[in-house]
Amino acid sequence: MTQSIDGQRRAQNGLDxxxxxxxxxxxxxxxxxxxxxxxxxxxxxxxxxFGDIMGSWRHAVATxxxxxxxxAATDLSAPVPGGRLADFCRETxxxxxxxxxxxxxxxxxxxxxxxxxxxxxSVDPTRVTAVERAGxxxxxxxxxxxxxxxAAVVVATGLATLAHIPDELLxxxxxxxxxxxxxxxxxxxxxxxxxxxxxxxxxxxxxxxxESAALLHEAGADVEVLVRASRVRWGERPQLRRPWTRRLAxxxxxxxxxxxxxxxCRAPGTVRALPAAAxxxxxxxxxxxSGGWWLRERVEDVVPVRTACRVEQARLAGNEVxxxxxxxxxxxxxxxxxxxxxxxxxxxxxxxxxxxTPPVREAVARVPGAQAPRxxxxxxxxxxxxxxxxxxxxxTFGPMLRFVAGTExxxxxxTGRLARQRx
Length: 423
Ligand SMILES: Cc1cc2nc3c(=O)[nH]c(=O)nc-3n(C[C@H](O)[C@H](O)[C@H](O)COP(=O)(O)OP(=O)(O)OC[C@H]3O[C@@H](n4cnc5c(N)ncnc54)[C@H](O)[C@@H]3O)c2cc1C
Description:
Blueprint: H1 3-12, E1 24-27, H2 31-42, E2 47-50, H3 55-59, H4 85-92, H5 105-120, E3 128-134, E4 137-142, E5 147-150, E6 152-155, H6 167-170, E7 183-185, E8 199-203, H7 207-218, E9 222-226, H8 244-249, E10 252-253, E11 256-257, H9 259-266, H10 268-273, H11 276-285, H12 296-299, E12 305-306, E13 310-317, E14 320-326, E15 335-337, E16 339-342, H13 358-363, E17 386-388, H14 394-397, H15 407-422
Parallel strand pairs: 1-2, 1-6, 6-17, 7-16, 8-9, 8-16, 9-12
Antiparallel strand pairs: 3-4, 4-5, 10-11, 13-14, 14-15
Helix pairs in contact: 2-5, 2-15
Bound molecules: flavin-adenine dinucleotide.
């Protein structure tokens, strides 16, 4: 990278505006990276942001999908009032969203772009390829070869590199899984209509599995969903007016109704203080796989769903995939398909973040019983100056951090800490 382009980048990122010191590098320009960057900028902390703006929502979500969360739970965190999803809709003439309106992904992407222009400024789309310790800070290497020094690094890279496919399915793909192979992960698709006319087994019972199955069916694929649980769970249609007795018994929260969800959303800092075992229990149990209420009519009695079954063996026979199922709902015959779509979620594992050099990864202490980072109350890991936010922070602060609703808490905590250090 030449000096002049670096100079351009620095100016674009607001680093030449008189605020001194090495910048904070934010890796990721999804809801978390953008929210943290917006707060840091407003606090006068020099910051450089890398990533594709709303990249996961543009490149890892199939066309036609909707958000599962309600509009009130889908605000990015701006440092001043005026940056909510509802503000965006009002200002740009988008139709008003109510609790009963599923949000199209494209609307959310447009909101992220608008938010960036308003509160973040320019974002550098270059990928970060390496982060290593350098003195009291970090050396951050970019895909184009440029290396920059940074006082602190905020990892906001989301789930894209953490996609998980169980071993028994991986055998189907001697090379890399992908849309053209016999096996792929839901995060590898933007267009499921490529499977029109083909037989597809979707493995999983959460929103990704069920919505992918609906889209596949609607595109003309012959699809079956294989679910481990004994039944598919569906969210409840929100009630716009709830009597006070109901509101008291089941308080509302960005993640749904009920005391546990309300508590973990109101006090994520307190979740961190719970014993590790209780926190992990909460992380695993608070929100199991389920489908959005508005999706139900597109799946139930429309798409074949086999519950209480798990894939015991998967093998390729010519161009076909044979799946042997176990479990009480498996029936006797193998399932034979052309493609297996793994909607099998994500594994929160620091070791999968290959842009962190091995010594950095090894130095990151993990939460007991998992591979996610152990974090301070300000989201800092055991490597001083290295912060993690988004889903990787959920085992520390609870399930809200898996969703956009956690951006406010994360952005304020991280910025509070980094701004204090600058003073
Ligand atoms: C299918 C699906 C549906 C979901 N639906 C909802 C929903 O309805 N509501 C909700 O609240 N949450 C939902 N989630 C969870 C959702 O992922 C988060 O809420 C939100 O997107 C997390 O934001 P993030 O900023 O952490 O990560 P992401 O949005 O994933 O953004 C990651 C960013 O990191 C960048 N990046 C990654 N690696 C690098 C690198 N090496 N160098 C530079 N940049 C990099 C990417 O370009 C991108 O900008 C859903 C998740 C999935 C998978």
